[in-house]
Write a structure and sequence with these properties.
Elements lengths: L3 H4 L3 E3 L17 E3 L24 E3 L16 E9 L5 H19 L21 E6 L1 H6 L30 E7 L2 H15 L3 E10 L31 H7 L14 E10 L1 H5 L3 H8 L36 H5 L10 E2 L2 E7 L5 E11 L6 H11 L6 E11 L11 H4 L5
Parallel strand pairs: 1-2, 1-3
Antiparallel strand pairs: 4-6, 4-7, 5-6, 5-12, 8-11, 8-12, 9-11, 10-11
The structure holds protoporphyrin IX containing FE (HEM).
């Protein structure tokens, strides 16, 4: 990994959910850049001034109020892995693991080599906007004898119409999401996290995703496309707006103290029935979503970021955005105000034995409470969304994403040392 000289070219970003974030821990000679609310949002509703030339130099600050992977701009590679603790694992062992994970996150996100046992996989690479995000499942708290600490928001998701879930590919006691704009950098971090986990955990599942690279999009802040060819992320809440923090983070007065400033991650592995989708012509595909495929503009008119007009009719008397269109069914105004922050990665794992693509979306939604976020929206989508015909939900997981921590501290200390509440 590069030394301090290379760090001087780096730019440090802190995604705290606030515009003009302050209090950044800035490395030697590094320049602190706050986010700007004026540029269009990317998939995570955030902004970035990245150019292809400095992709490797960009650094996210690990320490802070929130784990930065929640709201950071979408990276080009993302690996989500879930672990189960081995029988008999103690709170002390989990504490030791999360301490190691916090240290690995802080070190690799800064683009530094691990203090011991570094495999040099990412030697010479910059931090590449690496984020390491740690979450815990309700099952961990049960196994550790901490059932009384399970927040209501971590209650199991209900079953949804047409779910086709593989239990072995979902849930889990702990999770880590390693995401970066360089696949090697993300893998280097993931390997270190996995090696640390081996002492008290077995890995339950892993999914490997990708998204557009910043340098390949029309502008660094363009909305990414998914494998159906749609711009995906346009309607996300915008970082720096009052609504953003309320949507994404557990508030001061919400839930147990150890989760304040944290978030809840709903993961769904959603296979796209791409062969079926390909039989639709472009206008039929646009009617399914309610947006122009190329520009992302709502079918009611305007540009990508024009608010959809759900009351508008075409000259022929049809709803401009059809009744079953995905954006109409998913919109907050049709779901009691339910809002989520979507951060998806694509996956393409080849062809299944029937010859159809094993491909789709590693759908991740962050919110302050899934009961008033993902669950409300998915209950509607499962029954009324035309897109449901072209997708299958194949795996599901819900994790409490721990709040951030200060330098010298580690993630989850309040839960693991302070008795939680
Ligand atoms: C493979 C599955 C899915 C695909 C391909 C997909 C695709 C899209 C696209 C293209 C948009 C319009 C652009 C945008 O705002 O991002 C959109 C919007 C949205 N989607 Fe999905 N989506 C999928 C699954 C889901 C699921 C499971 C949920 C939540 C339960 C969801 C919630 C939303 C929301 C809240 C919006 C914004 C609606 C608005 O503009 O108010 N999507 N999605």
């Amino acid at each position: 990994m590069p030394g301090a000289g290379a760090l001087s070219r780096r730019r440090l970003f802190a995604y705290t959910g606030a515009v003009g974030a302050t209090g950044l821990a800035v490395g030697a000679g590094a320049t602190a850049l706050a986010t700007s609310g004026s540029a269009p949002p990317n998939a995570a509703g955030s902004t970035s001034t990245a150019s292809a030339a400095d992709v490797g130099d960009e650094q996210l600050a690990f320490y802070g109020t929130h784990q930065p992977g929640v709201a950071a701009p979408a990276q080009s590679h993302g690996f989500l892995a879930a672990f189960d603790v081995k029988p008999g694992t103690t709170i002390a062992q989990v504490k030791s693991l999360v301490q190691q994970w916090s240290s690995i996150a802080a070190t690799t996100m800064a683009g530094r080599s691990l203090a011991s046992g570094d495999d040099a996989m990412a030697y010479g690479r910059g931090p590449s906007s690496l984020s390491v995000t740690v979450g815990i499942g309700a099952s961990l708290l049960t196994k550790l004898g901490l059932s009384h600490q399970i927040p209501p928001a971590l209650a199991p998701l209900p079953a949804f119409l047409n779910d086709a879930l593989d239990p072995a590919a979902g849930d889990g006691d702990l999770c880590v999401l390693a995401a970066a704009n360089d696949g090697l950098v993300a893998t280097h971090a993931l390997r270190a996290l996995q090696r640390a986990a081996a002492s008290c955990c077995t890995q339950r599942w892993q999914v490997n995703g990708f998204a557009d690279a910043a340098g390949s999009m029309p502008t660094p802040t363009s909305t990414p496309r998914n494998l159906m060819g749609q711009l995906d992320g346009t309607g996300n809440p915008r970082q720096g707006t009052a609504a953003f923090d309320g949507t994404v983070y557990v508030p001061e007065n919400g839930g147990p103290a150890w989760m304040r400033g944290g978030s809840y991650l709903v993961f769904r592995k959603i296979r796209m029935l791409l062969d079926d989708w390909d039989t639709l012509d472009r206008s039929a595909q646009e009617a399914v979503i309610g947006r122009d495929k190329l520009s992302g503009a709502p079918l009611s008119g305007g540009g990508e970021f024009t608010a959809p007009d759900y009351a508008k009719f075409t000259a022929s008397g049809a709803l401009a955005i059809p009744a079953g269109a995905h954006i109409r069914q998913a919109a907050a105004q049709n779901n009691n105000g339910a809002t989520i922050l979507r951060r998806a990665f694509n996956y393409y794992d080849g062809l299944r034995s029937d010859g159809t693509p094993d491909a789709g979306l590693l759908f991740m939604a962050f919110q302050a409470d899934p009961a008033t976020g993902f669950t409300i929206i998915q209950q509607r989508l499962a029954g009324a969304d035309t897109l449901s015909t072209f997708i299958r939900h194949e795996a599901s997981a819900l994790f409490a994403i721990l709040p951030g921590c200060d330098q010298g501290d580690y993630l989850g200390r309040q839960l693991l040392e302070g008795g939680g509440v």
